[in-house]
Amino acid sequence: MTTPAFTEHSQLETLTRELSQFRLELGELLVAEKEQRIRAVQDSGEDTVSGANRYADMACMDLALDIIRLKAEIAAAETEWEFLMRWMEVAG
After folding, report:
1. Residue 37 in domain
2. Helix axis angle, 9-43 to 49-59, nearest 10°
3. Number of folded domains that form the chain
4. Residue 17, CB half-sphere, CA atoms under 13 Å: how many?
């Protein structure tokens, strides 16, 4: 059985750049979430730590969901990247 030639160098390059951008974006979102969470705890007006944390959880919900979505995109892109790398090794 022969392995098809690897001809997806441009796709691999594009995917590598996208992964890099995704990871930068993830870092920025994590920083923004942390900053927003700290502000929310400070502004919560709650008397208990658990109350302040619940308030912060709700205040940061949009960022938390964006982070989850981006982590899923990164995982999917990494799966494709690993496949292309292995295909390149086998075909090379």
Report:
1. yes
2. 140
3. 1
4. 5
For residue 1, pLDDT beyond 70 = no
Instruction: Mark 37-58 as b/e (b = at least 16 C-beta within 10 Å).
Output: beebbeebeeeeeeebeebbee
State the helix-helix crossing angle for 61-91 and 9-43, rounded to 10 degrees: 160
Which domain, by its residues, includes 74? 20-86
Query: Both tokens of residue 89?
Result: 């090794």
Going by C-alpha positions, the residue among 39, 37, 26, 34 that lies closest to residue 71 is 26
Query: Model pTM?
Result: 0.83
User: Is 29 contained in some domain?
Assistant: yes
In a domain, 80, yes or no: yes
* Residue 14 lies inside a defined structural domain of this protein: no
* 11 band by pLDDT with thresholds 50, 70 and 90: confident
Instruction: Tell me if 91 sits within 8 A of 4, measured CB to CB.
Output: yes
